[in-house]
Amino acid sequence: MDPDSRAPAVVAVARDDRHRFSKPVRDEIVLVAGHGIEGDAHAGPTVTRRSRFRGTWTEPNRRQVHLIQAELFDELAVEGHEIAPGELGENVTTTDLDLLALPLGTRLRLGASAEVEVTGLRTPCVQIDRFQPGLMRRMVRRERGATRLRAGIMAVVVEGGVVRAGDPIAVELPAEPHEPLPRL
C-alpha cells in the first residue's frame, strides 16, 4: 500500500472522570448517543462547565468529544513541545485525517458502530500554557491575515459504541454548501 493513501484511524483514546486538563489513555472508551463518553467529566447532554456557561444550564453540550490529529504532535515536537496522546485533553487521537479542514456537520464513524458529528473547533485556553509554557501561541496561528486554531475539533455523539486504538475512521461529509467550523 502506498503510504500516502493510508486510511484514517484512531491512534489512542482517553477519558477522565474528573475535570483535569490532561486525560489518561485507556484501552477503550464507550460513546453514548446524546451524552458523550461514559465516565468522562465532560459528558452530558447539556453544558456542565462554568467556562461554557452562557446563561442557562439547559444549553446543549456541543463539546461531548474532543478529537485531535496526531500529526500535530509531530509539528509541536519540531517547535520544542513534546506531547503525547491525551495530554491536550482530547478523547480521541487520530491519524491520516485533516480534522481541521472538515466542514461543520461532518459525521465520523469510529470503529464498528460509534458515530460523532463535528460541531466546531476547540478554542485553546490558558490551561495550555499552564501545561507547557509557550504552547498556547503554537496552538493559534496567523496565516494570510486569518487566525487558524490547531487545538482539534469538538463533536457530539450520534451513535454509541466502543472505540479503541487502531479502529478505522470513516468520513461522511454533509451536503454542500459546506460551512466552516465555528469556534467552540
TrEMBL record:
Residues 23-172 form the MOSC domain. InterPro entries: MoCF_Sase_C, MOSC_domain, Pyrv_Knase-like_insert_dom_sf. This is MOSC domain-containing protein. Signal peptide: none annotated. It comes from Agromyces indicus. PANTHER family: METAL-SULFUR CLUSTER BIOSYNTHESIS PROTEINS YUAD-RELATED (PTHR36930), MOSC DOMAIN-CONTAINING PROTEIN (PTHR36930:SF1). Pfam families: MOSC. PROSITE patterns: MOSC. It comes from the Bacteria.
